[in-house]
What does this fold into?
Amino acid sequence: MKKLFILLALGGMLYSCTKETPVTPSVDPTQEEQQDAPVDLTKGSGSENGLRVSFTAEVAPFEEVAGAPDEAGEAKGASAIINPGAANNKFVDLRALADATDASGAPRVYALTYIYDSNVPADRVAFWTPLKISNDGKSLSYDEAIDENFKGTANQKAIFRRMILKKMSGCYISILIGLKSVSETNPAIATYINPGAHRIDNWQQGATLPNNFVLIKSEANKLEWRIDKKGKHYEVGIEGDRRIKFRMMGYLMMVRVYNHFPEYVYKREPDGISNGQYHTRPVFDAHGKQYRTRRPDLNVAIHLSEGLSPVKKLYHGFSSDGKFYFDEKRGDNGFRYDHNTETFLPGPTVHRWDGEHYNYLMAQINGSETVASVAPKNPQPTPAKYPQVGETVVALYFPLANDQGRVSVVAAKPARFYTGNTYSQGTGGYKQNKERYFYHQGYEMTKTNKNMEGKVYYPIFNITYRELGRGTATPMTVANHTADFEFYKKWTSDPARNWQPEP
It folds into this structure.
């Protein structure tokens, strides 16, 4: 199975407009006077009457958008050019990496390629093309004999011959990189499984996303028919010898999480059981100061509603106007989609007022719903528009720009020290009967049906809290919280805890 590799490197770089010299043959002015010989698809690349396909391409940069997709002030337009005014920020730089080398050692990346007739909707052929990579992954090219690479069915070969006989009049080419090969003889048969969440523990220059993390495409490029200078073979190239552009399909979301909980928790000791509940008491030093220590980091989970494209099994399709798309097939009950449980975990089900329900799926890393651990810091400094060096960021790829649904960031279970019980205390003052306990509240973002093609978003999810008084703290019952209580008891007595009296 061919694999398609895409790298995204973090850097504060503007897009370079440096281009390679297009690999296109010169045309003899007298070629129109030459007698065209019939095209022979059995001939090799250097043979007379053989057919070559040739083009060059560049990988276009993203548009970087501070904040969430539904926030006011979102950058407008579909341009993928990086804003020069934001040159000092950390941007995501898209590059192509090879998954193979050819006989000369040149790096190649395999792409799903369609050539189609705009005047005959049913006439299209699909094949895998090994694109040559250059300019540090920013440039791509293809210049090969089609007979050496085209492995279509008998029907596809017949369609392709009809295009050849009309010298590609009205024909176009569309290319998709990142889809896995399912069939050598019929590349159009392919499903897409989202790669899932990826955590960048330290946002910095050179940090990377995994191979095959996004799809990039170039669509509806008009072709033209040419003959090389010596008339030895025919060539199909891009009209006007222009360089085509590859852009990301869908959008990227770089999730940032801020934990606004108080930095310290206060020491509690077991104080017996009554009425089926565990009870605790505070611990003081000789001066009446309560002991405290740093609150453990909060493990966070990301829930995505089933209307969003990452959590669906997607079925590849190609339209008559040269656009790639994916079908979203529903499950047996007619309401739920076929869920992507290969890279996401089943999550909670939410019941609606009308009796219907929808499902959430959870992002996972190494089989765990915990995608990041975030330290508490209250008061939280005002976050920067873009991630800062050292910040933890979780990347999610949404292949369908017009999907809609909800993205929620919540505490992963068990959310100890964040549940509103006595061990979630955030201030001292026991003697004044002013104990305060904190219960976590997550953040939910609603993603409307908005075209976000080719963009990278940096939404900030704030983990805030709801304050509970002493009398309203969440009780720890013997029936339901014994495991939690034993954990707290062991954790509190651990010599590794650096308990210090409050200032």
User: Anything to note?
Assistant: The chain has two domains: 5-28+52-252, 254-501. The longest helix spans residues 154-165. Residues 5-28+52-252 form one domain. The helical segments are 154-165, 482-493.
